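Here we describe the complex-level prediction in full. Unlike the single-chain runs in Section 2.1, the two entities below were treated as one system.
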Amino acid sequence: MAKKTTTINEDKIIVENKVVNTSSIVSKVWAFCNTLRDDGVGYGDYLEQLTYLLFLKMADEYTHPPHNRKMPIPVAYNWQTLTNKTGDELEVHYNHLLRELAKEKGILGQIFTKSQNKITDPAKLYKLIALINAEQWVLMGVKDKGDIYEGLLEKNAEDTKSGAGQYFTPRPLIKAMVECLRPQPMKTIADPACGTGGFFLAAYDWMTDEKNLSLDKGQKQFLKFNTFFGNEIVASTRRLALMNLFLHNIGDIDSEQVLISPNDSLISASETRYDYILANPPFGKKSSMTFTNEDGEQEKEDLTYNRQDFWVTTSNKQLNFVQHIKSMLKTTGQAAVVLPDNVLFEGGAGETIRKKLLETTDLHTILRLPTGIFYANGVKANVLFFDGKPASKDPWTKEIWVYDYRTNVHHTLKKNPLKLEDLRDFITAYNPQNRHKRNETFSEANPEGRWRKFTYEEIIARDKTSLDITWLKDKSLADLDNLPDPDELAEDIVENLETGLESFRAIIASLNASKG
Amino acid sequence: MDKEQRKNQLPADWKWERLGDIANYLNGRAFKPTEWELIGKPIIRIQNLNNPDAKYNYTRNEFEKKYEVKKGDLLFAWSASLGAYIWKGEDAWLNQHIFKVVPNEGVDKLYLYYLLEEIVHVLYTQAHGSGMVHVTKGKFEGTHIPLPSLSIQQAVVSKIEELFSELDKGIESLRAAQQQLKVYRQSILKWAFEGKLTNDRVEEGSVPNGWRKLSLKELTIVISDGDHQPPPKSKSGIPFITISNVDKHSNKINFSETFFVSNEYYETLKEHRKPAKGDILYTVTGSFGIPILIDYDKEFCFQRHIGLIRPKDSANQKWLYYVLQSPEIWDQAKATATGTAQKTVSLNSIRNFQVPFCSIEEQYRIVQAIESRLSVADKLEETITQSLQQAESLKQSILKKAFEGKLI
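The structure predicted for the assembly as a whole is:
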């Protein structure tokens, strides 16, 4: 407990010492990243090494005045041991250090799990160490060092070859979802597929913004140590998440409590129920795992999760996440989840799950997202907002409000990326302060209105209880008097073809799975 | 594959039953036209099942309960056009040539529905092309079908619906892309003749430097139409084109099914009624506004419902052909067309079409720019059309697999 109090005080130190010039550091970090890229070290690899080294450097800083904290890092592998070596000696020691620290407990071991040195040139490694060594990181503003890291994560996501972007939720979307939920102090927030921790950061930022909340000491303490719980099965991504949270002042360098579990969250029911769930489960429909068979060949097997608490057994990963998220939500909890269209229209298991979701939760809002905002191609996604409810005979969902931010909306990752401003109209319509008081913008007089209410009866009468609802006229299809630009149309065509491809790929996967 | 083989390849716990033994098939009633009314309960006829826009007949009379159809009932049309349907409308009466299918206990209605869908396909294949298929009740009820336990039936249905919903979505995306390609075509032409494909910056509402508007007659040697006299038809000789030989999707003449006129008649025609390489034909009556590029040497003549446009040297033939396809010219054609049933654009209005004109070099560059884009669009459209057909086959092949017990 005493330790944690110190940390709170340190926040003040950081604020007071804001004279540190961070912009030069940012540019140095970036410049070095570019140097390494010329050597074939990608953003992902660079980030990974940066994570190890930054962690050790900051731990080292904490052992000195004014902190004088005792850190759990073995002396033989602390920061100092890296700064007095060069060449082969440095490389050998660094490799050894990575392996050994992976065996440690708590956040330390988590950060170094499956760690590997990806910088093969010891001279470059030496330079990177020197670069980090020259700065006082702990003194740097939380926002600055956090932003450096988030910036690198985003760059990494853009690096399409690595595939890292597949799971990267656009930050403006995350912020909008948090603004709608308005997470309150002393409550828990979970993300069962947390990636690099984007939702946690956005929630943290929102809650520590004095325009929104003013937190007392206990509430700040709770926010830092007891609010966030995530799962991330990919070791390297989990490491990035932990570092990202830590640099943003969530959790602590020497805390033993693990904020992010390495377990597959779908395997078993969560022991805890949470107040808020914010998530964007990974895209790609199938749950599968690769294993080596008796003949030493790689085989892929379908994963169906035999969960007693699930409404229906399916190998559709997205549908399983919906069921899981429902199961981990408190009866007073709120969820906002990014899900692809197939969850809205898919027959069979999908239909059962939609019906159950409407009955057992209050599924009150659907935000239809445009294409061109995700790093994965051909993905059409939505945000589903639903509230947990106690058991009841009557369905909890009374009406669903749909906001169509897709029809005639054009975003591209580079030329016209999604901004928080683009979602401002939705947030206003959502009315976060009191979501029970809302006004439709759609009406017979205004058929172009994007915000429309549907009753439970209307929804349940739809074929397969499909929630894939559109009413706006697509200008790229009909309006010859008002022709869109050819390049805009060409992009629409590409998107439709990509979406079509995804559908047919999903069918192939589903048919292959049933060969048994 | 014969029946015995199909039966033997089924999973061990699947039974091989007759359609007649798993459900009751209640034929609809032969309603008389005198019983039809404009109000009351709708009468479901086959056209109401396979065409959502077909009109219903109604009746206020009451009939036997077995003719009554409720929402969710399984129907099977067994004459003329075969097909299984789940009724989604209000309470109604059933006309003859349609069965109301009432499954026995232990038989899932949707399982039977998809099964009938598959059988229909097989029956059609066996009927060799002729659209009219008629199934006798005896033959129908004697058809052997695979039947697993109720829980497996339900699992099969669930899997089919999962796959079909995804498939329908895929088809919907392809259709949307197909539709957008048509708009894309128009959009490219619009841009081309606003100068946007060949000039860097064109302010909205203005034309690029050196561009001006001309009437079509200033760009042409002659604008005429075909012979107004009925042509003396002959068994062979020179092809004579009517508007029905024009394919409006490809803007091409289909020479395979044309009339012929004699050489002697052709020779008597004036030069401006004989299409030559370099001319553009333009339909003027009925489906008006379709330009056809004559970029080949071939002797033929045409009906008066088609116009002939012979460009001057200052107008590139292909350029003019694309101009005539552009939304700008189409709007002018629409605005000046007269008549009600058979709309006609007069030669005079064609002569006065206002055309955006630029140098012959730029015309050539415009043609290049248009064609490089449209060729890609054409190829893509072809691919999509083919994919859509394959998607239909995929549906059938999924059903086949399902009833071989291989889907789950």
